[in-house]
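Input (Outer membrane immunogenic protein):
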Amino acid sequence: MRKTALAALFAATAFATPALAQEAAPFTGLRVEGVAGYDNLSDGSSDDDAASSEGLLYGTQIGYEFQAGRAILGVEGEITGATTDVRAPDVFAAGDSFQVDAGRDLYVGGRVGIAVSPLAMVYAKAGYTNAQVDAEYRLNNTRTGFKAELDGYRLGAGIEYQINPQFYVKGEYRYSNYSEVEDYEADLDRHQLLAGVGVRF
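Output:
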């Protein structure tokens, strides 16, 4: 009888320990999420006629966090696309046009957060971003196209909320600056406001 009671107590403890650990550190583990939101790309100029375009961003992110007390540290990677594009007529000659479409965007960086409640955290992030744009110039029946790589950095901040031990939602703002377009100097700003839904394993 005593052995049976001890075995039952051991089993209950074994099953309860992971649950208690997860409850004590709900923001620990591998996570995968989908993101979508607002995207704005501009040339970084303060002039009134600075080129700017808006669109929708969409993509997926994977990350891993470790929580110690209220502090959360993690790394993350992301790939997104966007509908953002710029179309300008009569650029160099009457009847011509220049079009730039945002392509895929790769990001890798770190995240630092603090748990403001057992279910919510606020965080800041920083890292490297590499974006691609597709450009095309048209004059009469002639079309000239090329792709360019944009290298830069990203800063951001947001809030994440655990719906349950596995699923969470978040809201985030981030700013990216691209100071180099392949071998040419540039100053492009990107502002994004997004929402995410994810699962933590």
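Residues 5-22 have pLDDT under 50 and may be disordered.
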